[in-house]
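Dear colleagues,

As part of the handover before I leave the project, I'm documenting each prediction I ran so the next person doesn't have to rerun anything. This entry is a single chain, and its sequence is reproduced below.
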Amino acid sequence: MTFALYQHLRNISKSSPKMVTALIIIGFFAVLLTIISWFTPLSDNSVDFSTTVPTPLGSPEFFLAAESIAGSASYPILKDEPVTILNNGKEFVPDLLNEIQNAKHSITLANYIWKKGTLTNQIFDAITAKAKEGVQVRVIMDATASLKAPHDKIEAFEKAGGKMEKFRPFGLRTITRMNKRTHLRAMVIDGIVGYTGGVAFDDEWLGDGTKPDEWRDIMFKFQGQGARSIQNMFNALWRQTSGEILSGPDFYPELPPSVVSDPCTDSCFIPLLQIPSPDLEKNLSQFLWISIMGAKDHVYIETPYLLPDKNILSALKQKVEEGVRVDIIIPGPHVDSRIVQLATRSYYKEVLSMGVHLYEYQPAHMHSKIMTADGHWSVIGSANLDNRSSTLNVEGMFGVEDKTLAKGIEEQFELDKSRSVEITDQSFVATIRDRIFGRISRLFAKQY
């Protein structure tokens, strides 16, 4: 059959050389347009952000705008349900395993990376044991990022009654969307305790973020309505992947009456689930932009990838000109991608010339994803400050108005800054090679 097809195509090429040439040209331009669309900024449909009225942080105008962007109301943080900071795997993993072991009704876990090793084995052993007890367990992982997941553990988990889905495995049905992945961290126990942040299920996250082979990261633990919001994020991804819609008291237990905080007062949160679609992909970028633009005193950012779009760059520049201090911590000598680091460093001169203070974290890989401003507003979750998070990935984020949380984040920021080296115009000297490759790698920033 293959030989017959070959002969048929050969006959066509002999009898209709012009048609073959035309098909080759069409194929070439189709591939070229795909590369331009997927990998370069030339296809960006970017608009300049603005607001009809000033939106300073803490004002009713700010919360209305943030709610509009997120497509969600503000919810109060109750005094007995504070948001808890868990630093690195050293604090997060024991806390998560303890909650799993105490689960009575349901466990839902979404993470980007599940890589065979001690940490992933611990997670699968724990949820497999709970599945055997009759607890409803659901797991979702990104099909591309979790290629090294332990298949024997998955098999044992499913035999015990657990359910698992992979987000967008390669196939004809998904080939046109393979570029769009899930980067979501959404982990919920019994519908009342939830986690989000940056930790992946990989042994490199087991430490305290102070050694070269470890990742510095932060997770956040929510309770009550906050956990329910994380459950909604998981459910949105799960039902689109599996077709099963989670409902009922096992996944959504009755909670104490929680009146929508309208307007937000002292302590509240706004959840944002980013699921990009063509021409409607700016929610996350706008959420970050309005958070920066509302600042009056300071903005502190930690991100593993500093690849901001033009609106974020413009906001940083304007805030510095207004006297707002902007500090950003990014990875130093320990990185997972040299190409992305070169692209990041290609922004250094531009950002430094604005008056932004840059710091490179020295002891370990940097993976924290936080923004906090003016001592009371914080943006936390799974997203990086790059194009992939803002336009391609599924991400889960929270905007949190809470002085206690902001204080805790700022304390961690100052600790990380003490372990970093400040980058200045004088200290940063890029070689000709780095400048060339930095500019080239920046052309493909849409994929980072």
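The longest helix spans residues 17-39. The CA atoms of residues 379 and 399 lie 5 Å apart.

All the best with the project,
I.
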